[in-house]
Design brief:
Helix content: 40-55%
CATH architecture: Alpha-Beta Complex
CATH class: Alpha Beta
CATH superfamily: Spore Coat Polysaccharide Biosynthesis Protein SpsA, Chain A
Distance between the termini: 29 Å
Number of strands: 10
Strand content: 15-25%
Shape: globular
Largest sheet: 8 strands, mixed
CATH topology: Spore Coat Polysaccharide Biosynthesis Protein SpsA, Chain A
Amino acid sequence: MNKVNAIILAGGITHDKDLRAVCQHKSFLPLYGKPMVEWVAKALKGSTNVDRVVVVGPTEMTTMTIATIADVVLPEASHEVDNLLSAMGHLDDSERTLMVTSDTPLITPTAIDDLLTNAPSADVVYAIVPKEVAQEYLPERKWIFVKATEGSFTGCSAVLFTPGIFRTHADTLRKIFDARRSVSALVRIWGIAFSIKFLLGALSVKKAEETISHRLKVLARAYVSRYPELAFDVDHVSDVALAEMKLKQMYSNA
């Protein structure tokens, strides 16, 4: 397969007040001796299927070690979609591009290679992890699961997409980003029937794929990953100790 380019979204301030007391910019949160974003970039650069890595975040990154790891470091804009568009402007159009967020420090080259090698052919691919896989990986963590007819899953902060499709639908994607914390806004986008089934756990993954594909006029697919590290993100201060524990296990002999 052809290599893909990767974009790390590392912008924004820390929303959790306890985490913000430690570090204003979550991507700079120190974990096992490095800012969190560096662990993400290191994993991407270690993947055999990733070509160039672009990081979009606070301007301070240009003078940090991350600037020597990533191929390009860009200052963040005020909106996630603008950050992605900015990053894509510094990349050649590969067949597909991988987007990850900077708060996923446990991702590994193996997990990334599995996604890039086995993800279905589609305009947009969203990785999900089964409940039992996530709980076996970190049983002490309070995971958030969505119930579907096939089982319960947790989402990953990893999306594989076709650059041209993203540019075409940038305005629609901006609305989705803006609506993600508003139930009523999401209902307007996805429809009442879809939303009710989703809330009741009566929606299948296949039906979700079909609805999203129809609404966005793209081919959208989910990829069920067996790598729970893709689904672990540092959202709360309780995640910090868990992340450091896992990083120590992963890199203590490196």
